């Protein structure tokens, strides 16, 4: 996976010379790219999350990916982990090889439009060649994923209809949905931590909405479970179209199109190190899948589950998080309510901080965490300050990848 087979040194040098320009103008280029592509190809709105477009997450994520590709155009193997992560998303969204030429065409148009006369014919030609190479890498990786998914017992590609067999209100804002294949066939297994993609076909909306939700139970059941937070919206963030629809409109007996489990954030079962799972808000969902997997299959492993919530009224699936005899569960409530105080229903008020973490869990552990970006940033920086090796730090973003650096 190197550019030696596809790009000559002159092209590599031109691409690398554009790295400072991408650092400055990358997000402007990707915003323009999405606007123009969606205008000319509105059918692609059936694939891309329009909420991420509105708040700017997707353009930023694409800009970061393009920048990384330019930096490492002569050693693309360095970005292979990022490629695989994106490829999981693409496979779950049913992105196909025929979509790549469209993206390439509009990316080059955006570079030329934003950079103007600085985007010389030489630069555009070099980026055309580079994009072709990068697209081939993605297509090959995704092709392998499609084939692997289809080979599984009960496996499928595209979308498969699942019936909602149970809908359970877990807290004021979180509801679980239990899903079984409508065709009665097998439910493929998955890795604890992976997610499903739900296709929401909402009456009155012109385009479909595709959303990823982590599987919140251990694999090996005859159903899938997702636990969805209703996003009510804030000034800086619109309400969740799909989460609101699931909570308010979808009922037991309804059918949802679902793509097969995907995702590169999953529990490593090859190590016997102590396991520390740290979640904030609805970020518990992939970690609860990991927790249940260890409880059911590896009871000898030391495990610590730390969950942070605003208070008990929004704390979902609390009983399931309790480890009992072979581990330790700790709850941190930012603003405990009267019932929490009366029942002493939590272990710490306020936030997770490094000194508390040092007293509570072993340094040599494998750390997995998920939650809101600010929460994850604080946990990541605490672990690095504690000098936990990067190889023992694992995390999942909900939505496009962001940076946890200071």
Strand order of the largest sheet: 4-3-6-1-2-5
Question: What is the share of helical residues?
Answer: 40-55%
CATH classification class of the largest domain: Mainly Alpha
- Total individual domains: 3
CATH topology assignment of the largest domain: Globin-like
Coarse shape: globular
Please, what is the oligomeric state? Answer: single chain
CATH architecture of the largest domain: Orthogonal Bundle
**Ranges with pLDDT <50 over ≥5 residues?**
1-5
How would you sum up the major sheet?
6 strands, antiparallel
Question: Would you tell me the structural class of the helices and strands?
Answer: alpha/beta
Percent strand: 15-25%
Mean pLDDT: 90
Outline the structure in words.
With 406 residues, the protein is an alpha/beta fold. Helices cover 41% and strands 18% of the residues. It is built from 13 helices and twelve strands. The strands form two sheets. The chain has a six-stranded antiparallel β-sheet. Helix 1 (9-17) crosses helix 7 and helix 2 (19-40) packs across helix 4. The two termini are 31 Å apart.
SSE order and pairing:
Elements: H1 9-17, H2 19-40, H3 50-55, H4 57-71, H5 80-93, H6 99-115, H7 121-151, E1 160-169, E2 174-181, E3 195-200, E4 209-214, E5 224-229, H8 241-248, E6 255-262, E7 275-280, H9 284-297, E8 303-309, H10 318-321, E9 327-333, H11 338-343, E10 348-349, H12 354-360, E11 366-370, H13 373-385, E12 393-396
Brief characterization of the structure:
The chain is 41% helix and 18% strand. With 406 residues, the protein is an alpha/beta fold.
